[in-house]
Design a protein that fits this description.
With 207 residues, the chain is an all-alpha fold. The chain has 6 helices and no strands. It is elongated, with a radius of gyration of 35 Å.
């Protein structure tokens, strides 16, 4: 068994953004009566003080959805959604509301992961076996495609040139400053160039 952190396989963003990327997100015009499975889920976390509360058969009061931790209160539209799903799915207890809420978190998430895995299968990659992160998988995709239309530079002979007296003078001056002996001539330098097929390599020394 291997335990993986899905956050390593997704770019920075929200859960909603992840779902919209791979599943398209909720397209329902009426968010209160949304039944696509990608809509918003609601549950009165802070009002659940004991397991027995989950067996209560009445829909939670609107105030039960308020959060003292965040300092927020549920808006009317969201509570109308709670009442809609309670009736539509014939919920018998708060436990049914919890199951509905958890399914909205888990089921779309699994579908989004499956869609993302299918994306990498197009490159013969198993998202969870061939990489431990999104950058690692992206690198493997890059190496599969970056050389497809690679054009090698044309091999053309270097243009012939000859050292000028001015450049020769510059070399002499550098050697005088560096207190080096200078015993080369223009003919000597041009002979070296010819042997190297007129390729001159510039070296930048770092002191």
């Amino acid at each position: 068994m291997k335990i993986l952190d899905i956050s390593n396989y997704v770019p920075d963003g929200s859960y909603e953004k992840y779902l919209s990327t791979y599943l398209g997100g909720c397209k329902c015009d009426d968010k209160i009566q949304c039944v696509c499975g990608l809509g918003k889920g609601l549950f009165p976390y802070e009002s659940i003080k004991a397991f027995e509360v989950l067996n209560e058969t009445n829909i939670p009061l609107k105030s039960a959805f308020d959060s003292a931790l965040r300092g927020t209160s549920i808006i009317n539209a969201d509570y109308e959604r709670v009442k809609f799903v309670w009736k539509r799915y014939e919920m018998k207890s708060i436990k049914d509301l919890l199951i509905w809420y958890n399914n909205l978190d888990v089921v779309p998430f699994i579908k989004a992961i499956e869609a993302q895995r299918e994306l990498f299968k197009r490159f013969d990659l198993d998202m969870f076996a061939d990489g431990v992160s999104l950058p690692g998988l992206s690198e493997k995709v890059m190496y599969q495609t970056c050389f497809n239309e690679l054009q090698h530079p044309k091999k053309v002979p270097a243009k012939a040139f000859r050292f000028t007296a001015k450049r020769m003078s510059g070399y002499k001056h550098q050697d005088v400053v560096a207190k080096r002996e200078f015993n080369m001539t223009l003919d000597h330098l041009n002979t070296l160039l010819k042997k190297q097929k007129n390729i001159c390599v510039v070296y930048a020394g770092v002191s």
